[in-house]
Design goal:
single chain; 109 residues; mainly alpha; 3 helices
Length: 109
């Protein structure tokens, strides 16, 4: 049987040595520690409450709420179905109702 096609025993031992060295160096690898400090400031606005006191007029507040609701809607839908033009009356009405719900939620907690 001709053994010329078989790998050289010397070459196999070199590969084993290389793998052993690699294993040893990876075991000696230093791990970096990372610390993250988080500070949360208390705010008078509870979660899920729209800050209506930050806007100058009710109509401006409604429009901002409508654009926000449209953004959320467009994120959920595909780009082809997303609204890209002006706000519609139905969107302004929905925004107004959401603002009323929000204010009632704040007042009657």
């Amino acid at each position: 049987m001709d053994q010329s096609g078989y790998p050289n025993q010397n070459r196999t031992s070199q590969v084993k040595e290389f793998l052993q060295e690699t294993k040893e160096t990876t075991e000696l690898e230093l791990k970096k520690n990372c610390s993250i400090n988080i500070t949360q400031l208390e705010d008078d606005i509870a979660d899920n409450q729209f800050p209506i006191h930050k806007f100058s007029s009710f109509s401006k507040t409604c429009r901002i709420m409508a654009w926000g609701l449209r953004f959320i809607s467009n994120c959920k839908e595909t780009l082809e179905n997303g609204n890209k033009k002006y706000l519609q009356t139905s969107e302004l009405k929905t925004a107004t109702l959401k603002i009323i719900e929000n204010v009632q939620g704040q007042e009657f907690e």
